[in-house]
Amino acid sequence: MEDNFSSYHPVISFFFFLFVICVSMFLMHPVFLAISFFSAFSYNLILYGIKKTLKNNLLFILPMMIIIALANPMFNHYGVTVITYLPTGNPVTLETIIYGIAMATMFCEVLLWFACYNEVMTSDKFIYLFGKIMPSISLMISMTLRFVPMLRNHMRVIANGQKCIGRDTSNGKTTDKIKNGVKKVSILTTWALENAIDRADSMRSRGYGLKGRTAFSIYRFDKRDRAILIVMILLAITFFVGNSTGNCYVSYDPIVKVKGIPLDLYSCITFLSYLTFCMLPVIVDLYDKYKWKALRNNINKKENRGYRLWT
Amino acid sequence: MKRYFNVLIIALMLFLLCSCGKSTDELISSKMTNEPGGSCTISIKCDTLLDNMDRLKESKRDFVPEKGIILDTTKVDFFKGASVYDILKQVCEENNIHMEASYSITFKSSYIEGINQLYEYDAGEKSGWMFSVNSKFPNYGASSYQVSDGDNIEFVYTCDLGKDVGDNSMK
């Protein structure tokens, strides 16, 4: 589903994801975690729809979260509130459990952001941004990002082909199954290597990365890009200044200490700026949809002479 | 194919998870028997931290007691074959003092990481817990030192590889 934020200039999308992913990787404050998780999830909803988002998250991210939250108290034992003792004599503490949950949330929200990044920052945008500065690296990155889905598709093709000539992995002796499986993987590897060389050759023959070569692009840095960039920079500065005052400090070791709750002026400003920044794509998209609807209603009111443009 | 691949990945992740932690199985097995083996005294102190408060992490400062004594000298009756680690564990559980230890495979002995939330490296890279028996610092782990009757065990926090608590074996 194409959302409005994706239609902005690639610099805007890249700056947004760079900031949001880098920052949410280091923030452990519960309010920040909640904000980032909520915004990432709602942006996922816009990009993928309810069904796909829930499917992706319940299948992979939720079990991962539970594993991380449970694993942390097994390996860390600091904290004042002892719940029980492990057979080794080390304590299981409430602090490590809380930290585990916070860490799991952080991990999860970064994955959610990356899911959005994949959808918004397509490889043509990436190449457009970095093709001039570092041609070979940006081509390699976009090729590697494409690798997993491409290999998965081609594996299916190979499997079908092998099935036709009777080298199937679904029946037969176990040794035969393994033999056929290995053959499939070897075919895939050969194909992948050849494909990569082919692609490199074809890019070279087109003069990719040569000096003075221009590339066609449909991106233009216009007024709304400038406006949103200014807003983003202002919000980012407010956030960094607010965060550096120490009013959003949190520590889990050895006592859970959370500053900024209840809200004071500084922490309120910091939280608000972070919330607005993370919600920017959602706000932009919802505003766009609202505007579209309002304009359509206007037309309907005006064209009230026996026929309607839209129903 | 896909299912096997998933199982493989999960197995790999579990393996990685397990290898992250230090092996702790050996912490449980001690050579303790059921016969009484006498009594010893034990104390836990961190008075070196009082002089190095500025180097200690800010979040840990509340955990240094006023005179640096976490546990005053206490008399403990122990079973035959008990190690210094066994006695520390027993004392900490009785007095509700937090303690964390891990088994180090290289030295085949348990290593005291932290007592009362004060951990190794909390006051600079030369800091951590050491123990002495009858004012001598044995140069091996707490679970490989067998306690004998009348021993005087002291756990001390050092901020300078033992030099500030009277051990000069590390140079």
TrEMBL record, chain A:
Keyword hit for Cell membrane: no
Membrane topology label: Multi-pass membrane protein
Transmembrane segments: 12-38, 58-75, 96-115, 227-245, 265-287
InterPro entries for the chain: ABC/ECF_trnsptr_transmembrane (IPR003339)
GO cellular component: plasma membrane
Annotated localization: Membrane
UniProtKB keywords: Membrane, Transmembrane, Transmembrane helix
Protein name listed in UniProt: Energy-coupling factor transport system permease protein
Taxonomic classification: Bacteria, Bacillati, Bacillota, Clostridia, Lachnospirales
TrEMBL record, chain B:
Record flagged with keyword Signal: yes
UniProt xrefs under Gene3D superfamilies: 2.170.130.30
Keywords: Signal
Domain of life according to the entry: Bacteria
Residues of the signal peptide: 1-24
Domain Transcobalamin-like C-terminal: start-end pairs: 81-158
Protein's recorded name: Transcobalamin-like C-terminal domain-containing protein
Species of provenance: Acetitomaculum ruminis DSM 5522
Lineage: Bacteria, Bacillati, Bacillota, Clostridia, Lachnospirales
